[in-house]
Amino acid sequence: MLAILRAATFAASAHVGQTRKGLPDPYINHPLRVAHLAAQAELGEDAVVAALLHDVVEDTTLTWDDLRLAGFTERAIALARLLTKWWESGDDDNERDKATYYARILADRDATLLKLLDRTDNLQDLVRIVAARRDFAEKYLKKTRREFAPLLERCDNTYVLQAFRERLTALESALDRRR
């Protein structure tokens, strides 16, 4: 439990001043919600810590060494690292980079579940802003269906599966209402 509190404090400090794209919410709300979902899914302490830290290196100036120096376990850091997007090509749409990224996630059960929970929270945020960003929401939904099918096939956690499907359905419904 202490590691989770330390990770929450560490992530809050790292993300201070950041907000979610298209929302006024403090960025830290996102990793906190993902961590809450991970705890609800009974994923274990390292996974909850990774949920809190999953965007720290990607979206701040901190490094993996900073996480080690802060005393987080190698397992929590490894999970956060698996979730961190990196593109050899520097191009978010590079199919080879995406394939490598998702293959690494799929090789680890906890990383697969955390990635699904991360996307679950992202889908919930999109429901809130669908009126203002309809085109983006439609593209994101299509991308989610395509890229997350293999992760859903491997998902063996009923809570994660149900939460993901509920948010996906909520976004589909929000888009349908706006037509």
TrEMBL record:
Q: Which Gene3D superfamilies match?
A: Hypothetical protein af1432 (1.10.3210.10)
Q: Which residue ranges traverse the bilayer?
A: none
Domain (HD/PDEase) ranges: 23-132
- Whether Cytoplasm counts among this entry's keywords is no
Q: Which InterPro entries match?
A: HD/PDEase_dom, MESH1
Provide the alphabetized UniProt keywords. Kinase, Transferase
Which SUPFAM superfamilies does the record cross-reference, listed alphabetically? HD-domain/PDEase-like
Entry's Gene Ontology molecular function annotations: GTP diphosphokinase activity; guanosine-3',5'-bis(diphosphate) 3'-diphosphatase activity; kinase activity
Lineage: superkingdom:
Bacteria
Q: What is its EC number?
A: 2.7.6.5
Q: What class of enzyme is it?
A: transferase
Kindly list any coiled-coil regions of this protein: none
Q: Does the keyword Transferase apply?
A: yes
| Name of the protein | GTP pyrophosphokinase
* Provenance organism: Luteitalea pratensis
Per the UniProt record, the lineage of the source organism begins with: Bacteria, Pseudomonadati, Acidobacteriota, Vicinamibacteria, Vicinamibacterales
